[in-house]
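pasting for ref
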Amino acid sequence: MAGRDVEVPALAAGLHIVATPIGNLGDITLRALEALAGADVIACEDTRVTRKLLDRYGIATPLTPYHDHNAAEARPKILARLGRGDAVALVSDAGTPLVSDPGFKLVRAVREAGHAVTALPGASATLAALSIAGLPTDRFFFEGFLPPKEAARRTRIGELKRIPATLVLFETGPRLAATLADLADGLGAREAAICRELTKLHEEVRRGDLAELAQHYADADDPRGEIVIVIAPPAEEMAQASENEVDEMLRQAFVRVSVKDAVSEVAGATGISRRDIYQRALALAKDEDDGAT
């Protein structure tokens, strides 16, 4: 498609978090294009992936890699550029940076150094999947990728069981069948949707309960592309944990985090008020102190 040269203003100094398309390159905002063209440099996961997007729109801004493997080395260099007054755009390979992608430590370091951080919102696989899954959207919990090893994955699924919200997970094709089998075993017959290759030519949404979906993908070849799993929330009668279950969840959390963080974690997982969970935590702590004397 023929285009024309357009002059864009220089981007303001600071770090700009730019969402990019999750598949269809047409799903980018005008503001994002102006930012990518006006930046001094674009920090990206894979320069080859980002270059395809820039070539599509005739943008020649220099690229520098920023990913999990080079972040410790690359971060000081980006901070130095910001210190000189440069405008740096941060993108991931697809979607919104920092959502299961690198960037959290960079944003924190940039803010601590006193530089501006600006968000340029756009495409997100999480929101795209929620919008077409046909499951409740008033409250959802984004989990991202479950642990790859079976034992750890099953443990985490058990922790997610009582969260009173629609669950959103990411998964790879080779692990999808095994993950669905563990989800079916741990969560029961909940309705779910497998959203694959969203916004791309071969977009697919398959719905059913977790056991049905697990069987389907066990019998099929490994699916290709990016996959989002959306799972209905638990039935209302399951959402409230018993007192014994709350106590056990608190004990497990106490081993890892402070009382305050444990209360927040268990309240979020059970839907029970923080005040009630805090009272239970105090009672547990007192019982343990009494037992130790």
